[in-house]
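Lab notes, practical 5.
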Amino acid sequence: MSWFDSVELGPPIEVFQLTKQFTEDDFPQKVNLGVGAYRTDEGKPWVLPVVRTAEKALANDETLNKEYLPVLGLDAFSSLSSKMLLGVDSPAIAENRAFGVQVLSGTGALRVGAEFLAKKLGKTIFYFSKPTWENHRLVFLNAGFKEAREYRYWNEEKRGLDLEGLLEDLRNAPEGAVVILHACAHNPTGCDPTQEQWGEIAKIVREKKLFPFFDSAYQGFASGDLDKDAWAVRYFVNQGFEIFCAQSYAKNFGLYNERTGNLTVVSNNLANVAPMKSQITLIIRGMYSNPPSHGARIVAHVLNNKGLYDQWRENIKAMSSRIIQMRKRLREELESLGTPGSWNHITDQIGMFSYTGLNEAQSLLMVQKFHVYMLKSGRISMCGITPNNVNYVAKSIFETLTTLPAKY
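Output from the prediction step:
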C-alpha cells in the first residue's frame, strides 16, 4: 500500500518523446525535425561565439560571487531586455512605466504573468491561437485561469493567416479576457500578420477591452533584425496599450538550458509600478524564490558592451539566414520532384518552424517509414534541415504524399 497508488501514468510530451526515439534510432539517414533548437549545417548544436566570449569574461571576473540574486532578478539584465524589446526611445521606458522581471525563460515569464493576472486581477478566460505552442494552455490553466478558448489563426486551404476568423473570434470574446499573441515567427505555423493586419487586431483588442499578453520567443532570430521582430509589441505600446510580454533567450542567444527570460510589463500609470513589483515578488517567492544568475549575466554582459552586442547581432543574422536558405532549398527540392501541392508557404513563413500541411497520418508515416522525426501536426523545425539532408527530407515528403494522398 502506497500513498501514490492512485497516480496514473501521464501522456508523454510529444517533442521530447520524438527526441528520445530519434536518439535511440540507428537508421543512418534519420533526421530530427521535432526539437526547436538551432543546428549548424552539420546538424550540430551551436554555442554562439559571443556567448563563449562572455562566459570567459565572467569566469575571470573575481568580483562576481554565488550569492542569491534579488527575487525579481538581475536588474541590469531586466532593464536591458525591456529596452531591447520596446526600443531605447520608447516613451514607456522614458516615463518609467515599463519594467522587467528576470524569470525562468519564456515559459517562466508566461507562468508568472498569468498567475499575476489570475490572482491579482481576477482574470479567468484566456485566448490562444489555433494552433499555438502546445504549452500555452497548460501554463495558463496551471496558473489559475479557469477557461481556455481558441481564436482561429491558420487557414489550411490557403496555408496562411485566417484573419477574418481571427478577428471574428476576438470580436466575440468577453470584455477583459486575456489574449496570447505571438510577437513574431508564430509557433507552429511560421505565419505572421502584416503590419496592417496587426492594426486591425489592435483595433478589436481595444474595442473589446482585451488584455494583450505577447509571447516573444524569437526576437532577432526570426528575421535577423531585432527592431523588425519587435514591431508588433512596440506598435501596441505606442498605441497606448498596457501589456505583458514574455521574452526568451533560448533561441536568440542559444541559452536553451540556462532558462534565461524576462517578463516585460507596461502600465499606463507610473503609480502602479511599485505595487505590481511587490505582488510579482510575492508570486515568485512562493514559486521558485529567485532566479539563476549565469544566463542573465551572459545576456547583460553582451547587451551592455557595444562590441559584443554588434557581434551578437551578426550571430543572429547568421542563424536566421541559414534557416531562410534552408526554406528556399526545401521548396526547390520539393518542386523539382513534382511534389503534389504548392509549396510557396515554405518560403512565405518565417522563423524556426514550418507548418508543412502534412496531416497526422502522413506525419506519422514520415516518422515510421522514413525516420524523419516531426510532430503529428505537420510542424517541422527548419533548423534540423541541412544541405546534407534536405534532398532526403524532400524525397520523403514526396513519397509520403504519393503513398498517402490527401486533399492538399
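Observations recorded by the TA: The first helix runs from residue 14 to 24. The two ends are 54 Å apart (CA to CA).
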